[in-house]
Amino acid sequence: MSQVTLYVPKWVVSAKIFPKLLDVHELNVLSYEDANQTVAHADLLFFVTAEGHLVGLSPHVVHAIESHGFPASWWLGINTVHLRSNGSLVCTGLRNETLKQPWGFAVQGTIDKARRHYDVLYDPLLSLLNTSGSVPFVKIVGQLHTPLDIPPPLKDVIRLYINLPFDQYFNLIECSQALLPVFGSSSYVKNKFSSTVLASLISAVPVLADDALLSAYSFLSEATAFKQMSNETVVDAMQRISKLPWIDHQIRRDNLVDLAERLNVAAGSFLVNLLT
Which pLDDT belongs to residue 28? Predict the structure, then answer.
């Protein structure tokens, strides 16, 4: 059998699927940075097999690859170490009190104004603060790349959690009602894969998804995500989600656990078939 070289994003190496395969087949696994120097279209997030077939992490990435004239498939493996039942989840509030249920909303990933438009939250939250005084809390979780110009009146509404250890990072996400993508570019629904979608599958926390996101990441649905209606701002949707009964949250979380398991089974079958 000829050696197979896989060009993969670094997070894939930690997925459960690879240790099992490494017992059977020797894989030459390169980091995403290495692939970027080798493959012209590495920004589309794919790996290359010995036969030259391209593989993306979601359907819309495959569509982008195919638009360049290359055949492609997609698979997505999920590190499910942080998927846990609601009964074992312990959440801590702003005053270090123990809470029975998740609270607030999370924006995760590298804190960079070029990647995410945090300012889409500012004016609606300020308006809400001035009119009702009841404002949903926002946790911005990640590694600081560029400073944010958060308006001073929102200092008690938006909090930054910077450079947290892995467990604390995902606990903050798991203890949030939903993940907010606030994409800074349409490329995340055209040719790039979003780490927020991956975080949703790892943590079983629904993402707030508009039509474009649901169309791009078609393995998601209203059963696993909170739909942002066409007439809603992000903050409108946050307010609506905050008022939903907990069962609506739990159903989506359970469905995300099931989805992650199905994606891992499909990814395992894909890679086993590739290497046999």
Answer: 33
**Worst-scoring range by mean pLDDT, 18-22, 53-57, 223-227?**
18-22
| Extended strands (E) in 9-101 | 27-30, 46-48, 54-56, 72-74, 91-92, 98-99
176's tokens:
């949030």
> For residue 142, how many other CB atoms are within 10 A of its CB?
21
Distance CA(5)–CA(255), nearest Å, equals 34
pLDDT category of residue 70 using cuts at 50, 70 and 90: confident
CA distance 132 to 127: 9
Alpha-carbon torsion 159, 163, 167, 170, what sign? positive
Q: How far apart are CA 196 and CA 181, in angstroms?
A: 6
Which residue bears the tokens 């005053």?
A: 95
Q: How confident is the model at residue 7 (pLDDT cuts 50, 70, 90)?
A: very low
Q: What are phi and psi of 238, to 5 degrees?
A: -60, -45
DSSP 229: P
Angle between the N-to-C axes of helices 246-275 and 195-203, in degrees from 0 to 180, rounded to the nearest 10:
110
Would you say 184 and 23 are in contact if contact means Cβ atoms under 8 Å apart?
no
Q: What share of the chain is helix, strand, coil (3-state, %, to 5)?
A: 40, 15, 40
Domains and CATH numbers, the chain: 4-74 (no CATH), 81-258 (3.40.50.2000)
Tell me the C-alpha distance between 187 and 191, whole Å.
Answer: 5
- Measured CA to CA, the distance from residue 13 to residue 33 in angstroms comes to 13
DSSP assigned state of 171? H
Alpha carbon distance 253, 7 (integer Å): 31
